[in-house]
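Structure ticket #2291
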Amino acid sequence: MGRNYYRRGGRLVVKRKGITQRRSRPVFSRKRENGYRTPLRGIQMKTLAHGEKTLLAEFKLSRGSVLPAHSHPHEQTGYLVSGKINLTIGGRTHAADPGDSWCIPPDVEHGAEALADSVAVEVFSPVREDYLP
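Resolution: structure written out below.
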C-alpha cells in the first residue's frame, strides 16, 4: 500500500480517495504583549495565528465599549475568557459569562456590549484579510 501523502515545494500534500489536498506549513506563535490594534474605542484586537482557512484573534473589550451591529461573510466562533458581555446575534441578545461560547454563521448581523472588562478569543473562516498582521 502506497503513501497517502507527499511533499511538494515544502508543503505536505495529502491524497484522499482520489482527492488531493494541499496543507500549509504548521504555524506556532509565542505569547506576545504587543501587536494589538484599536479598531473601535475601548476595543483592542490582536491576530494570534492564521492558516489558509482560519484566523484566530483575541479581543480585549473595556467596560462600556460597544461593538455596533454588523455582518460579514465569515463564520465566527468565539469563547469568552473573562468578563461579561451582552452579545446580540440575529436580533437575540445573550448575556455571556466566562466559559460561554458562540458560533455566528456568515452574513448574520451581530454586535456586543462589554458589561465589564472582558477578553474573548474568536476564530474566523475564511480568513479575514483585514485582520492579517
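Closing remark: The mean pLDDT is 88.
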